[in-house]
Structures
1.
Amino acid sequence: MNRLGRDEPLPSQMQGRWIGADDPLSELVVNGGEIICFGTVVNYDHKIIVAEDGALAVSLGVDEDFRLDDFQRENITGLVMTPEGRFLVYNVKFGLEFVSPIP
């Protein structure tokens, strides 16, 4: 399992601006390795990218154990692109689907 730093980009399928499928006011922006969710930069230290059975999953984490609990409650901790093309983000409190905005 390779841990990649924050400056390494997320997969190309996840790059760009996304809006909440059920809430168009919710916005997610993925630009290289930077993630902005609900207007706030996600402050993570590393990511693990796994491709399995047609799905692409990114798990976000922090290096210091004492920050883990707060990080998991305050930020998204995972992003998943399903084989069907659905883009989901989640943490310990919620999950949300994002879609590309209609131009």
Note: The chain has one domain: 3-99.
2.
Amino acid sequence: MIVSSNSKTEYDVSKIEEIAQKFGLFSETAEILYNRGIKSDEEIKGFLNPGKHRFSDPYLLAGVKETVERIDMAKESGETVIVYGDYDADGVTATTVLTSALAEYGVNVIPFVPERAAGYGLNNETIDALIEEHFPDLIITVDCGISCRDQVEYIKNLGVDVIVTDHHELPDILPDCLCVNCKLPSESNFPWLCGAGVAFKIACALLKEKAYKYLDLVAIATIADSMPLIGENRDIVYEGVKLIKSGKASAPVNELIAVCNVKEVTATSLAFTIAPRINAAGRMGDASSALKLMLAKDKESIERLALRLNSFNQRRQLDCETLYKSAREKLVNQAYDKKIVVLQDDTWNGGLVGIIAARLVEEFSRPVILFVNNDGKLHGSARSIDAINIYEAISACKSHLIDFGGHGQAAGITIAIEDYEGFRQDIEKYVDEKYDLDCFRPEKYADILLDKPFPIKLAKEINMLEPFGTGNKKPLFAIKATELFVMPIKIGSPHLSLRSKYIDMLYFNAAAKKDLLASGAEKHIIFEPNVSVFNREESLKGYVKDVEYIVDPSEKIALEAFRESLLTALNDNDDFLFVSERMTENLVLEFSNKYFGTIFAFYNVENVALYPEIEKLDRSLFETANKNLVNNVVIGPTALNVTGYRRIIYLDRPLGNVPFFGLNETFINRSRRAYPFDKLITEKRVFAEIFKKLRDNEYFKAESSAEFAAKCPLGYHKMQIIFVLEVFIELGIFYFNKGNLRYNPTVKTNLEASKIYTEVEKLKP
């Protein structure tokens, strides 16, 4: 189902127009701001003019004043301070920021990040080793520690002070020490900083504006940790991107930009280039290399370490693909019907399961927790969809937990091996009882549904809303289209060029969908506007992100579905089971009550109403509506991706055999024909009459027989025209080429050579 922001009250329309006029914006831009909650003059001015002038006073963050006082004491007394971070990009950059700021402030500081094998957060064995080697007076955590109450007590009992700086969700009982966490109540009232963001606020309290030189690192961390790009995060990322673009970023960041060959620095490009390489070091068991790079000063070390991180990332990509295939296969075989996916494998790399969990969440629209065995315990990475708070779900199963931390969309968890089944069952029960099917339906969203041409000036204005990312996605637009001119961008290309009356578009890797796109069925095309420059000339293209066919009992849908039902006569597949109407009803009752794994297929959309149990399911034309295995209805199935589905039930019967999609459970209702095929006229005089009209008027504009029949019924019922045309096309007498019906005079044959014709003949009484 496509979701758009176009449903507006009269008040909304008037406010949007007021914003557009006051700020000199296109109404579409004003509407995007309005629908994203940016409505007041002050909010709009701030959003359109982000930057350091909007940074909040660091002392508004609870605990910063006391932290500065304790740091001053350490400085005056010549104490040794350890900055204890985390092994991911946020943790490494947070460690770099606070270490660098403390050193500049005159504190004797030692940076440290653990390796992933030691586990997330403070670890008693690691603490013992650090204290034995460095004899610190104070340990300051960054990006971790808020859930480490016991470890903090352990450190204090050893005579070392602790300050916890973190941004993760607050546990029921906080550590008994000074804590700086953006989620604690404070005057700053901004709970969305990343770990490096919290460290940056402390650095600002110490160094004032001199701390702004760290904004490149803080921006990368904010992006890497998927923090929402709103409020102060937007200002941080805006300034950080600007710093990197200017070439004045730190030498390590500049070197990574060069190694990654980043041509245009944006929040999006940093998310796909720099952030993964910093993360890769920790994922591959060498987080210290990332920290060494970020703190390095000499050119040789910077170049060598940047190449090492790049190499780690290449290995990580290969290993991720292997792990993804393994985890996906397990999901499809073991958890396809679960609202939350919990899987475990001893061979998986613990440093990569978080990436794979996130990828599976995106693909299957369900929370995913992947566990690996490490030192006799199961360590898991959890990721979730927006509708489900994974932190709350895991918290509800706390009797099984050894260690746990995170936030609403991501968490780390440790449990005993023997607790795995109990934990899996309890969290499945929790999610099953609390969340209904609507939470798992992936929605196709567009910010604006267009009904007029898209000007290039609007596309350029949209770029004013940068930086884009979590919490501020790049706006998507949609058009409703029936007739499209669809062609490969060049011969043999997998990419398509789509021409509409509103905007020209590119659809990458969509060659297999050409005929469906060119069909006369109404569809929403969701796209992202992009302006490119070639030879100093600007051009606008829409990059297609998704297509949704509009399924309703319209004539166009009926004609397209009828055409598909005729084409089944060309199938040789016999891998299915005919069932009676009563058995069909039993199958519907059984599987409509389960959320996942079943496709209900029709060739006549009007027949859906005969089965009220499935009327509320998402519907699609030709292909599955959802890729996450949620039950759905498909009209005229032709291009189904059924990977992971268990069964397809055809509730009406086409002319021939249904296509083979590889499912073992394929049922066809033998009692209900989709259409009265026996009423089609097979007399040769009718074929001869229609043949003559087609031959003598060759240049009919259409992309398919269904579109042709809708425009040119030639005095017959439209389904009769489709039938005749498809017989002629099967025999090679006519064909469609570049939107025109063409005649091939070289073909000499007879009607009985057509499978479509003979199948209809068989049904005659």
Note: The chain is about 40% helix and 20% strand.
3.
Amino acid sequence: ALISSLLSTNGLFGLDYGSYIWRGSGLHTQLWAMFFLPLALAEIYRVIFQKNKFFLAVLFSAIVFLSNVVYGYILLLSTVLFLLLASKKEIVPILKRAALLLFLLALVASYFWLPFLLDKNYLNRSVWEAAYKYDSFGAKKILSDLFTGQIFDYGRIPSLTILFFLSLIVIVVLKRYRQAKCRFLLIFTFFWLLLYFGRPTWDGIFSILPFSQDLHLHRLIGAFHLGAIMIIGVGLSLAWQYLKKYPLKILTAAGFIFLAILAPSLIERAKFYQQNSQWKIESQKAIFSQEKEISEIKKTLKDLLPSRVYVGLPADFGDGPAYKIGSVPLYSLLPQLDIESFGYAFFALPLSTDVRLHFDNGKLEQYNLFNIRYILLHKTWTAPPFYFKMKELENYVLYEVPTTGYFDLVDVPAVFYGKKNDFYSPNSKWLFSSLPQLKQHPILEIGKEPKETFNLPTIPFSKVDEKVLLDLAPTKDATERGGILNERMETNQYWTQFFVNHDCYLMLKTNYHPGWQVSLDYQKVEPVMLAPGFIGIKVTPGVHQALFSYQPSNWRFPLLLFGIFILLILFYDYSIKHWLEGSKVVKLKNKLKQKVAFLKFLN
């Protein structure tokens, strides 16, 4: 625990506390995974080699897997590593117990991983994320960082790095690698160091490993950190066992040497955590000082017609000092106020995420496309001519831009299709073209071939370019498609009443997913995905009403109940065993008491 709190990296998302605290990355779910991963591995070892009951191993493993997919992946591959400790006689029964354990884990967590697997074609692999996140850094850089102290001691004297290599020397010199547990610890640590090298070193291997294509391999540093921390712990324990036989003077000198090695880390981390507290307090004071204005912003927006609010993106003015309260950007504050905003992509899995980050705040049609009706600008900023002032606050001014709301009527000129990894290019080009202004939204199909052509031109994602988009623009002004008469939104559903003058599509300006259910005039209809990743249905002339509602797969909740049922069965099996053991202990104690009492009586 002491060593793990002293880790320091340059934002590598490892087990250093910078991954979790306020001034760091705030990886709350990884914190749960970090805590339960060593517990899960310990229980898996007991199940496989000591034939313990499965309950705790499955429970802790499920918590790890549901907290963080990368750490779940680490857990699964680490379970396979345990097989290396088995003798030839043990391998078959151990393999059976490991397989049964993983099968039970798959059942308990099935409500999560099965939909995740089935929806993989609609999960975004962001082009905005640096390549190293998916590929890691390669052996040369990682080994260089390891030996120069960057993996354990970024920005300071490499105290923990020294302890790590000293601990390895102690383990080797004392030949503790001959012990199974120590040997596994070494295998675990260096296996994950090798995998942490990533695709630059092991591209062929990662093409074989299942589900590794969209995995953030740079986060495998967490597994290496865990192994390294335990190696340091073993090394220090062995050193203590060796030194405690010596006189107090030698023990005192060893203690001073140990503190001298750790001192730079202790001092640097104390300053780091103190700065974290200072920044938090400063931001809390800033938010408190503007609490009245924040409350007024919330009340004003809640009383208005529901639409998205824009206070800047990180790529434009969203991170400017005028749009921060303390260290907190307004685009981070609005979601906390339960206000739907168009800002930072906190949830980046929808396919349209990367495209929408190209939003151009100088184009009126893009405000309508994303239903950005309200804008907060600092009072010192000059608004574009199409902004209409609504309300002046203490530091900010609220503006309005006309939009059609969450719904619009659009035309469909073609069908674009291709792999999900090619989704970004045609849709970003579409956004830059004249088609959004003309309300021309191609249907988007994920797959090698479109499931349906709709009697429209079909164009692969890879073939979409400026010329293709120019050719799709209508040669004459489109007649009025119709209009939105009314709309209403509730949790996970949107309702609208509208009129249509000619065949077109009704588009809901939110992310497409197969879980969306749509009814048109109380009749269920099949939705399609429209550029840049929204939901649409075909409509005919007349007055209609439509209801769009999101429903998760109807078998997901039964899977959750089934997983809980499996855990309850395992718990029953576990508790019965411990109750029986407890009963035996109680009986044994009673017998001993009776014998002691009898001996006293004889004396």
Note: The chain has 20 helices and 18 strands.
4.
Amino acid sequence: MISKALDYAMRSMVYMTAQGDNTYFGVKELAEKIQVSSTYLGKVLQSLVKSGYLKSTTGPGGGFALARDPETIKLIELIECVDGSRLREKCILGLTECSEANPCPIHETWKSCRSQLTDDLSETSLAQVIGKSWPQYR
């Protein structure tokens, strides 16, 4: 249901949040910590810089760091920044023609679930995720 880019973005943002404020991470270091490809992670992190979620600096001690307080970053924001509105629009069965006018067999059920999920993600901040304990990221 989620893209590789979103997976990498969420994992990196959660890891950075767990490590504390103003800590810069190099791409290779971060990729090793969250166990992903450094090449693709670099592209994902650059998109998060352009969107204002991360800041970056070059040179010794440089890398990527959080640009905003994790309390102010809602999970739905990150999802929509990376994947657009796919979560709200995509058919759970993967059908391209699924819509209100032409619903799939589970359209109404998924619509209800999707609505609740969107509400929950809109209310949950990145900081709250860390508060739920991610021992592997500390």
Note: The first strand starts at residue 54 and ends at 57.
